[in-house]
Design goal:
Rossmann fold; five-stranded parallel β-sheet; binds adenosine-5'-triphosphate; globular; alpha/beta; binds magnesium ion; 14% strand
Length: 209
C-alpha cells in the first residue's frame, strides 16, 4: 500500500443509501485527482460473481457457516485480484460497497455464528486488511422498508428474511461501530442524501488532506 492510498467501505442495511453516497464519493475523489476503484461484495471478480449468484439466488437456505465461508472466499479472491494490486497504485482509493462489517452483521449477528467467531476468521492474511475508514449509514427498519418499496424490486435471499433478522442486522452493525470506533463513523442516514454527503465530505477532508 502506498502512503497516499486509501481504503474506504460503506455499510448499512438495504436502502440505507450506500450506492447513492458511493456515487458522490467517487466524484469528489476523482475531482481531487485520485484514481478510484469501486467494488461490491459479494462479487467484484469473475469467481466472486459466481459466488454472489450462488448465495443471493439460492433457493435452499444455506447453513450459516457455509454462507459465511462463501462470502469470505469471495472476499479473499477480491483482495488478491483487485484490492491489494490497486492499493499499490499511487493516489488510489478503493471503495467497497459492503465489506467485513456486513459479514459481522449478517453471519455473525443475524445468523448467530457470533461476532467473535467471524472476527477470528478475519485475523488471517489476506482477510485481515481493514479499511482506513468505514461509513456506517444507520437507518431504522421502517425507513429501509419504505425505500425498498419505492424502489420496487423483487426481494432477494436476505431481503425476504423475517423482521427479527433485520433488527439483528441493525444491532450487529451498531455493535461493530462500538467495537471499532476509530475506524467506523456512524451517520444518521435518515437525513437527506445531501446532508449525509456533507458529513462524509468533512470527514474525508480530514483523512485525505
Ligand atoms: N438519504 C436518503 N433519503 C431518502 N432516500 C434515499 C436516501 N439515500 C438513498 N435514498 C433512496 O433510497 C433507495 C435506496 O438507496 P441506495 O440504493 O443508495 O441504498 P443501498 O444502501 O445501496 O441499498 P442496497 O443495500 O439494497 O444496495 C434509492 O431509491 C435511493 O434513491
Ligand atoms: Mg446498493
Amino acid at each position: 500500500m502506498t502512503p497516499e492510498s486509501f481504503f474506504i467501505s460503506l455499510e448499512g442495511i438495504e436502502g440505507s443509501g450506500k450506492t447513492t453516497q458511493i456515487k458522490h464519493i467517487e466524484k469528489l475523489l476523482i475531482d481531487k485527482g485520485y484514481r478510484v476503484l469501486t467494488l461490491r461484495e459479494p462479487g467484484g471478480t469473475e469467481f466472486g460473481e459466481k459466488l454472489r449468484e450462488a448465495i443471493l439466488k439460492s433457493s435452499t437456505p444455506l447453513h450459516p457457516l457455509a454462507e459465511c465461508h462463501l462470502f469470505l472466499a469471495s472476499r479473499a479472491q477480491l483482495l488478491k485480484e483487485k484490492i491489494l494490486p490497486f492499493l499499490l497504485v499511487p493516489k488510489s482509493v478503493i471503495i467497497l460497497d459492503r465489506y467485513i462489517d456486513s459479514t459481522m452483521a449478517y453471519q455473525g449477528k443475524a445468523r448467530r455464528l457470533g461476532l467473535e467467531t467471524v472476527l477470528e476468521l478475519h485475523r488471517h492474511d489476506p482477510l485481515n486488511l481493514l479499511p482506513h475508514r468505514t461509513y456506517f449509514l444507520d437507518i431504522n427498519l421502517e425507513t429501509s422498508l419504505e425505500r425498498q418499496k419505492l424502489r420496487g424490486q423483487q426481494k432477494d435471499y436476505f431481503e425476504s428474511e423475517e423482521t427479527e433478522f433485520h433488527l439483528n442486522l441493525i444491532d450487529g452493525y451498531r455493535e461493530m461501530a462500538q467495537i471499532f470506533p476509530e475506524r467506523i463513523l456512524t451517520i444518521d442516514a435518515s437525513k437527506t442524501p445531501e446532508d449525509i454527503s456533507k458529513v462524509i465530505d468533512i470527514d474525508l477532508g480530514k483523512i485525505l488532506k
